[in-house]
Amino acid sequence: MKIHYINILLFALPLNILVNNQRNHNNSTYHTSNTKTIKSHRSLCECKLYAQSNYENDQEMKDVIKEFNDRTAQRFEEYNERMQVKKNQCKEQCDKEIQQIILKDKIEKELTERFSALETKIDTNDILTCICEKSVADKVEKTCVKCGRILGTAVPELSLIGGIAVYAAAQSATMKTFISETIDVLNRIGGMSQLFGAKISQFVTPSIYGKPMTLVTTILSEKEKLCLCVANKKKLLCGGIERSFEQNLPARIAYAVNQGVHTANETWATATTPTTFLTNPFVASSIAIMIIVAIVLIIYLILRYRRKQKIKKKIQYIKLL
Questions:
Q1: Taking each helix axis from N to C terminus, what angle separates 212-227 and 243-271, rounded to the nearest 10 degrees?
Q2: Pick the residue with more confidence: 212 or 235?
Q3: Among 30, 146, 212, 294, which has the minimal tally of Cβ within 10 Å of its Cβ?
Q4: Could you tell me the residue range of the domain that residue 232 belongs to?
Q5: What keywords does the record list, in alphabetical order (predicted)?
């Protein structure tokens, strides 16, 4: 029981304190001061430097705003140009792809139509034994190659034959001129034709060309043999000539040979001129054949170039498919 009394007394003490505190709080009065507090800082709107009128009329601020606007406009233009370039590239790429798609669809449509038009039923009798059809260009190209091979081997031989023929003809004409001219000059020597007659042609041969002393020796030895005969004693060269004439006889024979050589050289020079060479039938035919070979070669090169172009187009067509 004592314990309960103590608890009641202890509870009454804090309750009294709370009641008194509440009463004092309600009786207290609050006074608001009318004095304004002094601020330790100032805001921008209160400064005259940053007032609206000063802000708009400040030259430095105007320059800053103008520079900012210019840079912004420049960057916008650069960005716009880059965008335009990209748009053009994208447009070109799209156009190419669209063209390829259209071309592919067109080719597929044409192939479908052609395959649908073909007959699917094929008999063994319908198969051709040879399907090696060649175009006219291929045939002409092969013909040109064959002609080029034949003419290419024949023209050098024909040119060689023509040159040899011209040389042989010139040499033959030179020897004939030499022999005839030498015989003619010998016959003009007094008593020569009377003693030797047609035998002079046996003495004048191509072997004495440029060798007058050989002919002199031959004629003098034959003269001595013929003069031993009694029938020839009365002929001019055997007994009826003067001493000076007999001494000058070798010189006259040598002169005949030299005159024949001179005439033969003129004939050789005439026979080997460019005009004579070009008018020779062998040479003229060789030149004509060479011209034909050149024309055939040009035709072959043209056809070969066209064939390569066609093959290139076919490869591109296959790649598209």
A1: 140
A2: 212
A3: 30
A4: 152-310
A5: Coiled coil, Membrane, Signal, Transmembrane, Transmembrane helix
Q: Taking 60 as the threshold, does the pLDDT of residue 180 lie above it?
A: yes
Query: Are the beta carbons of 267 and 169 closer than 8 angstroms?
Result: no
Which residue type, as a one-letter code, is found at position 296?
V
Residue 110 maps to a domain:
no
Torsion of CA 91, 96, 97, 101, to 10 degrees: 140
0.85 cut: is pTM over it?
no
- Domain total of the chain: 2
Residues 181, 287 within the same domain = yes
**Is 135 within the bounds of a domain?**
no
209 & 71 share domain = no
Three-class SS of the chain = CHHHHHHHHHHHHHHHHHHHHHHHHHHCCCCCCCCCCCCCCCCHHHCCCCCHHHHHHCHHHHHHHHHHHHHHHHHHHHHHHHHHHHHHHHHHHHHHHHHHHHHHHHHHHHHHHHHHHCCCCCCHHHCCCCCCCCCHHHHHHHHHHHHHHHHHHHHHHHHHHHHHHHHHHHHHHHHHHHHHHHHHHHHCCCCHHHHHHHHHHHHCCHHHCCCHHHHHHHHHHHHHHHHCCCCCCCCHHHHCCCHHHHHHHHHHHHHHHHHHHHHHHHHHHHHCCHHHHHCCHHHHHHHHHHHHHHHHHHHHHHHHHHHHHHHHHHHHHHHHC
Per-residue pLDDT tens digits for 119-129? 555 455 544 44
Among the ranges given (31-35, 101-105, 184-188, 221-225), the one the predictor scored with the smallest mean pLDDT: 31-35
pLDDT reading at 93 higher than 70 = yes
In a domain, 32, yes or no: no
